[in-house]
Amino acid sequence: xxxxxxxxxxxxxxxxxxxxxxxxxxxxxxxxxxxxxxxxxxxxxxxxxxxxxxxxxxxxxxxxxxxxxxxxxxxxxxxxxxxxxxxxxxxxxxxxxxxxxxxxxxxxxxxxxxxxxxxxxxxxxxxxxxxxxxxxxxxxxxxxxxxxxxxxxxxxxxxxxxxxxxxxxxxxxxxxxxxxxxxxxxxxxxxxxxxxxxxxxxxxx
Length: 205
Prior knowledge:
- The structure is a single chain.
- By secondary structure, the protein is α+β, with helices and mostly antiparallel strands.
- It has 2 domains: about 15-140, no CATH class; about 145-200, no CATH class.
- It has helices at about 25-30, 145-160, 165-170, 175-200; strands at about 15, 20-25, 40-50, 55-65, 75-80, 85-100, 105-110, 115, 115-120, 120-125, 125-130, 130-135, 140.
- A 6-stranded antiparallel β-sheet has the order 3-4-5-6-7-10. A 3-stranded antiparallel β-sheet has the order 2-11-12. A two-stranded parallel sheet has the order 1-13.
- Helix 2 crosses helix 4 and helix 3 (about 165-170) runs antiparallel to helix 4 (about 175-200).
- The longest helix has 26 residues, at about 175-200.
- The two termini are about 25 Å apart.
- Mean pLDDT is about 75; it is low at about 1-15 and about 200-205.
């Protein structure tokens, strides 16, 4: 028997999407000033996810951030699943690494356990799939734009396509052309995000 998350791992031929999961992100806590050494803060995160163009769904996640003990820095997550109405409370370890130009970047350590082995992978975001929050790799998640359009994007760029030119030409044209234009721009944003992450630290997983 494993520990947290044991028996709840989901493996399918096609990966599930990050966009279909609730998430917690260390940058949100940092922006709110909740990751200062020596602090102890409790609160609630309200997360909103768009299900369709006309419909949104909202969830609340309680938390307590405890940075009083340098050797036991953690965040406690609290939430309820509906249905069936199960409540969950458990700690997630936090770790920090120095940034190249000062300051620190904060990470969760994935709390999931498989066959008695803790994952403990560092991740900026954890995703709720099934009952517990875990890293993207443990939950076998893919990004929608990566799953759906990377082949098209690669083919477009391989042929020498220009992202900016395509974006201008697609305005006022078909919805499919506009949709592909957005995918190209999303690809560019993801590429810039990866460059930024490597620049700041270089080993986010």
